[in-house]
Amino acid sequence: MTTFWSLFITVITLGTIAGCAALIIWCSKDLDGIAEGEDMGHEYDGIRELNNPLPKWWSYMFWATLVFGIVYFALYPGLGNFKGLFNWQSSAQDVSNLEESRQLLADSSGIDQYARELTTANAIFGETYRKLAYKPGTDELQDIPEIAKNPEAIKVGQRLFIQNCAQCHGSDARGQAGFPNLTDKAWLYGGEPQTIKATILHGRIGNMPAWLDAMGPDGVKEVAAYTLSLSGRKVDAQEAAKGKARFVVCAACHGTDGKGNPAFGAPDLTDNVWLFGGSRKAVEETIRYGRQGVMPAWENILDEDKIQLLSAYVWDVSNADNRQ
């Protein structure tokens, strides 16, 4: 944090405490020269205001809160770059890459609370992850479909999902605009067990180019009409026919039949499943301006056994209908 922002935060914090203290003092004094209990001369909806001081217990509670705040900021970080007398920190704020993070996590005796808690958690639950992910008595991972048959493994995989993936895909794995629904069969890169694992391990980068400059406004509308018609949507036939002729540039990724290509992560346009919305306006916007998406890689964040359990959970929720 730069000196400017450090001073800015410090001034705001201490200024707020000082302002609250001044307000308490002001409210505790007889500024109008009116004796306690006398009428202040104010009326609100028939209610007269009397010159009564704040209750003592209330004032003491405010002062205790302010004192607590001052002591807290003296002991713990909270005033800009000042780390507090205890020199405590919740996590390593100066880490700039994963390698530095791993090195710090190797030493759990420091002041980094996150490192200590993570090391403790791995010591407690590490054997559980290994037991569920590996074949008994071996260093060989179980197949993902086999892991999915174990209810306990799925529960652990679900917790890993909620902790690491729910921010984008939702706690129910049904996604949201721009983030795929993992419970259906509309996989951009394929829904096979090892493909799901590869996606989690290495991440994905999706890029749909913008076509406004190449097609023009009318061309965008025509291609949108044809694209919608591929999934059975009702559109203007003449407009869709013109769009079909222009669709040749889209076929390089989505295929001449519009069924997509998992090798590129190009979605199937015939299933009426839309990552960024299936309205006419949303589809036109996708064609006009393009779309970019990034799925981060987790191979340097989660251990292999955790990724195996997480992959089993994702594969399991996408195949729930097969078990019914």
UniProtKB/TrEMBL annotation:
The answer, when asked if Zinc-finger is one of the entry's keywords, is no
Q: What does this protein do?
A: C-type cytochrome. Part of the cbb3-type cytochrome c oxidase complex.
User: Record's Gene Ontology CC terms?
Assistant: plasma membrane
Keyword list (alphabetical) reads: Cell inner membrane, Cell membrane, Electron transport, Heme, Hydrogen ion transport, Ion transport, Iron, Membrane, Metal-binding, Oxidoreductase, Repeat, Respiratory chain, Transmembrane, Transmembrane helix, Transport
Family per record? Belongs to the CcoP / FixP family.
Q: Protein name, please? A: Cbb3-type cytochrome c oxidase subunit
Complex and partners: Component of the cbb3-type cytochrome c oxidase.
| Protein's organism | Enterovibrio coralii
What start-end ranges are recorded for coiled-coil regions in this protein? none
Q: Where does heme c 2 bind?
A: M208, C250, C253, H254
Cite the binding residues for heme c 1.
C165, C168, H169, M295
This protein's cofactor list reads:
heme c
One BP term from GO: oxidative phosphorylation
Q: Which Gene3D superfamilies match?
A: 6.10.280.130, Cytochrome c-like domain
Query: How is the cofactor bound, as the UniProt entry phrases it?
Result: Binds 2 heme C groups per subunit.
Task: Show the SUPFAM superfamilies listed in the entry.
Answer: Cytochrome c
Asked if the Swiss-Prot or TrEMBL record annotates the protein with the keyword Amino-acid biosynthesis, the reply is: no
Q: Which NCBIfam families match?
A: ccoP (TIGR00782)
Pfam family name, one: FixP_N
Query: Which domain of life does this protein belong to?
Result: Bacteria
What pathway is it annotated to?
Energy metabolism; oxidative phosphorylation
Q: Which residue numbers delimit the Cytochrome c domain?
A: 152-231, 238-318
InterPro entries reported in the protein's UniProt record = CcoP_N, CcoP_N_sf, Cyt_c-like_dom, Cyt_c-like_dom_sf, Cyt_C_IC, Cyt_c_oxidase_cbb3_su3, Cytochrome_c_Oxidase_Subunit
Task: List the Gene Ontology MF annotations in alphabetical order.
Answer: electron transfer activity; heme binding; iron ion binding; oxidoreductase activity
Q: Which residues cross the membrane?
A: 7-26, 57-76
The subcellular location is: Cell inner membrane
Query: Which PROSITE patterns does UniProt cross-reference here?
Result: CYTC (PS51007)
